[in-house]
Amino acid sequence: MQDAENPADAGTSAAAPGPLDAAELHRLDAHWRAANYLAVGQIYLMANPLLTAPLRPEHIKPRLLGHWGTSPGLNLVHTHLNRVIKARELDALCVWGPGHGGPAVVANSWLDGTYAETYPDVSRDGEGMARLFRQFSFPGGVPSHVAPETPGSIHEGGELGYSLTHAYGAAFDNPELFVACVVGDGEAETGPLAASWHATKFLDPVHDGAVLPLLHLNGYKIANPTVLARIPQDELDALLRGYGHDPIHVTGDDPAAVHQALAAAMDSALDRIAAIQRRARTEGVTERPRWPMIVLRTPKGWTGPHEVDGQPVEGTWRAHQVPLPGVRENAQHLRQLEDWLRSYRPDELFDDEGRPTPEVLACVPEGSRRLGASPHANGGLLLRDLPVPPLERYAVEVTKRGSELHEPTRVLGGLLEAVMEATAERRDFRVVGPDETASNRLEALYDATGKAWQAETLGTDEHLARDGRVMEVLSEHLCQGWLEGYLLTGRHGLFSSYEAFAHIVDSMVNQHIKWLRTARRLPWRRPIASLNYLLTSHVWRQDHNGFSHQDPGFVDHILNKSPEVVRVYLPPDANTLLSVADHALRSRDYVNVIVAGKQPGFDWLTLDEARTHCARGAGAWEWAGTEDGSREPDVVLACAGDVPTQETLAAADLLRRHLPELAVRVVNVVDMARLLPSGEHPHGMPDPEYDALFTRGKPVVFAYHGYPWLIHRLCYRRAGHENLHVRGYKEEGTTTTPFDMVVRNDLDRYRLVMDVIDRVPGLGVRAVALRQAMADVRTRHHAWIREHGTDLPEVADWTWAG
């Protein structure tokens, strides 16, 4: 390794063999040195950006934040991507996986001019360089990682593990797009990234673009060595080849040699990619290819301080963040920093006005081919409206409420099939899920497309297709990442999952919500299609799979997040599901969570009624209650979710028959955010509207699909909260009958009637016999299911008689 005070000049060192002539090698090295200089400057400097005066403590930021260790490697890759993009006229995108690589990617965006185009006050000159340096990891500035603020980015670098799945999501249905993806060796230890290597089994060389992974082995995480950097090369090759890749190795610490080797590796990889696509697209070859990848080994913190305070830094974990931490207080550190910065010879890289020299910019592509300007990284620029057909074609007819049964998700499947068919030529809609499309009753999709699959097929397989746009893999992380990458590059999609296992992507959806929240505040970021979840096979009908499959808490997780982004819908029947799905598929910049059953459920609302009810988000079902409008109801029966709605209506039916004098209002909630005050969520109800619907002083018995405390949290500031009693899932489950699930959790119709009797003043004394009868039915239920294995006939055969 060279000392930071005298780095090797790749353009004049002994010529290393490779595809670059001396002039091009010198130009590439100049660009790389300029990017490194800018990365260091962002971490340290708040003044004197061009070192026109000796460096003084007041030029240094008071808090030094950022990550140097990965930056020289990212700068190297960016420089060489510029070269091949320009030479081959590629439409390209790069996903930067290593954590907190912001200084490098921002530096390159500033060099190629897209940063100044996006933020005119950060101009590509000395004055703009000063702003660039000061804003980095500074109050009111930009984050230390690759974030929505960074032109050319689609990947939030603050959490590791998702870069490669995002890259493949971007490549799907983008046949002319080349997606490079830098995978950090720390990130490569995560479960999602380990699964992502399998994405080659789903990439269609005909209809999809190409992904070139670059595994950057700089050897260290924040404080420890990395696994893949410490295993023998033959073992690493066996691992990567076992995943289906063909690794090309680039190793070294001499800039000239590494430049030549990386240029040769990129040329070789792109030639192989072009050959794979040509064979598939023009020669009809269907054999799954072995896609190339690059394994890049360079020192962590390359070209930075070799030693600090007698401790080795370059090439060690100490280079991870800020190699010289005490620059303001320590004169020796300050001298080392100045020597480090001057070692890049900025006077050769920037003119007197601070503008990059023509030599530095010689490798930079033009226009939208620049990585910072790729329209694929601002997907809203490419987004087209989704052709959703009229819902009337798929709606169920409701001639008598609560008498006919339909499987809501099967009804939705017809609509999704039509959307898939309508996008057959434009290929901008996909449905992802972990091996459950048919289980979730969405198999109508297979009439329009198959399941994406490039691996071996057998005669017993069904619906597999090389060009399929349904994607199933038993990794929720891959499903989530593929869809995020697909949406961020300007397409549409839906994630269908069992409700209980949506939690697997809790952290991933966190990052996407944060991305959307930030992007909405950036006027240059165009809105993208919403991330839509269909959670089915839900808690109340997991009686067959048992306790392990029973968890409705994803909704709680989502409703904790940014209110301008998140939406949660619990449609009670097939037509409301159609209405909600129509809205979600057309929406922009949201995360929509729809919880709906796949088992046969009653039809309650016509399509027109469903549209009106869903637009309102919450409302009284006058036909279900017994109030006459002359006075406030005695009690409000509220519900959210399909099974709670059925139990609430069954309870209302019992009250109508046994206590006809009781004025009952039935309220159904579809949009959970309606329960929040209007000041806390865009969909929230103003207090007068909430009071009119739920009353200010009457008892409210609320049957809720999930954990009951969520309703209390949403409504705790409302008038009459002390009168709110919520029933929901309370971690009581097993393999049992459907009705026993609600009984175990005190959500059943008989318990709801008992709750009304207990909470309406004076009713307990008058209705003591009815209360006892309700308790007796529950007792009889327990004995019946243990003897017969089925639910009570009056439950199994119940229909709405109102």
Automatic annotation (TrEMBL):
Q: Which organism is it from?
A: Streptomyces decoyicus
Which cofactors, by name? thiamine diphosphate
Domain Xylulose 5-phosphate/Fructose 6-phosphate phosphoketolase N-terminal intervals:
21-381
Q: What residues does the Xylulose 5-phosphate/Fructose 6-phosphate phosphoketolase C-terminal domain cover?
A: 598-800
Keywords tagged on the record: Lyase, Thiamine pyrophosphate
Family per similarity comment = Belongs to the XFP family.
This entry's Enzyme Commission designation comes to 4.1.2.-
Which protein are we looking at?
Probable phosphoketolase
- Asked if Ubl conjugation is a keyword of the record, the answer is no
Q: Which Pfam families match?
A: XFP, XFP_C, XFP_N
InterPro entries given in the database record: Phosphoketolase (IPR023962), THDP-binding (IPR029061), Transketo_C/PFOR_II (IPR009014), Xul5P/Fru6P_PKetolase (IPR005593), Xul5P/Fru6P_PKetolase_C (IPR018969), Xul5P/Fru6P_PKetolase_CS (IPR019790), Xul5P/Fru6P_PKetolase_N (IPR018970), Xul5P/Fru6P_PKetolase_ThDP_BS (IPR019789)
